[in-house]
Design goal:
The chain is mainly α. The chain is 78% helix and 1% strand. It contains twelve helices and two strands. The protein is globular.
């Protein structure tokens, strides 16, 4: 993999360009989401703008967090099919959040989500590793199996709770933005964690580039592979758990965004990290806006949750990657 030199000025221009794209899309989503042309009185307009602002902010921080986690997993595992949703990380975080909200406290949901995500990452990695190498086929199967196990435990939990709670859990599992009480505090927590993850992964970007060539090669060139692996697993699990605690599991963002960006900016993680953060935010803002615009089209039914829309886009995209890049991934591994 041949990489071009990247000066501080070019890096800053890259970051500002992706930031500008997000700002334009976020502003448009705020205006369209509030539907300012149909509101005439002040209080109604204020309520609409507040709800639209919450939706844009939530979609931005969650989209950026999930895209960064997906990029990090793909870089570290050297598997283009890796993502928090497919590896079962989102499922583990969901189980942790549900159990904490039912039996502990809603205040510790991000902590339990992080623990569930971290346990899943460690389990998948331990299962898929053989003689110091990761087997892509085993990696995906491990994620599928863990997802099935978590789904079974969640269904068992739903069967033991009250019917109204059961409905809330089922709807939350679809991945929703702005459909519950406004949780600005949790949005702020996820935003801080996502920005922190972007900074950490930016410092690890050079290591990601070398690991993509091979862990042994990266080690000989001075990369502390074990340290990079541990830090990446913890940070990616942390942001995934916090994002799931805020909106529920929203799938395939971490799969779609990094691949689309590689087609645009190439394989250099120095460019991919900031691009993933801002374009992940942009992507989920657009997806959330699309669900809001569907509200009138599907009336009197409620609009589909944003997690349903991303899954409908991500499923065919995953099949495409599976058919076109599986052999290449298997050969590299």
């Amino acid at each position: 993999m041949t990489l071009q030199p990247l000066s501080a000025r070019r890096y800053a221009v890259t970051v500002l360009a992706w930031l500008a794209l997000w700002l334009v899309v976020a502003a448009a989503a705020l205006v369209l989401g509030a539907r300012v042309w149909v509101w005439e009185s002040g209080p109604q307009l204020n309520d609409a703008l507040r709800d639209a602002l919450y939706g844009v902010a939530t979609a931005s921080v969650v989209g950026g967090a999930l895209a960064l986690a997906g990029l990090a997993f793909q870089a570290l595992l050297r598997n283009p099919l890796a993502s928090p949703y497919i590896l079962g990380v989102s499922g583990g975080a969901s189980l942790g959040v549900i159990l904490s909200s039912l039996f502990v406290s809603v205040l510790v949901q991000p902590i339990f989500g992080f623990l569930g995500a971290l346990v899943t990452v460690g389990t998948v990695y331990a299962i898929a590793q053989r003689r110091g190498r990761l087997e892509p086929y085993t990696l995906l199967l491990s994620g599928v199996i863990l997802n099935a196990f978590y789904a079974a435990v969640i269904m068992l939990t739903m069967g033991l709770v009250r019917p109204e709670t059961r409905g809330d859990i089922a709807y939350w599992m679809m991945g929703n933005i702005g459909r519950f009480d406004l949780q600005w505090g949790l949005v702020g927590v996820v935003a801080v964690l996502a920005v922190g993850a972007a900074v950490v992964f930016a410092f690890l970007a050079k290591g990601f580039n070398l690991i993509a060539v091979g862990e042994e090669t990266a080690g000989t060139l001075g990369v502390r592979v074990e340290r990079v692996r541990h830090v990446t697993f913890v940070v990616a699990s942390l942001v995934t758990g916090a994002a799931v605690a805020l909106t529920g599991p929203i799938g395939f963002v971490g799969l779609i965004v990094p691949h689309l960006l590689r087609m645009v900016v190439g394989p250099d993680h120095r460019r991919l990290v900031p691009a993933s953060f801002f374009f992940g935010a942009t992507f989920l803002v657009l997806a959330n806006l699309a669900t809001g615009l569907l509200e009138g089209a599907v009336a009197p039914f409620p609009p589909p949750p944003v997690g349903v829309l991303t899954a409908m886009c991500g499923g065919p995209f995953f099949v495409y990657l599976l058919r076109t890049r599986w052999r290449r991934t298997a050969e590299v591994q």
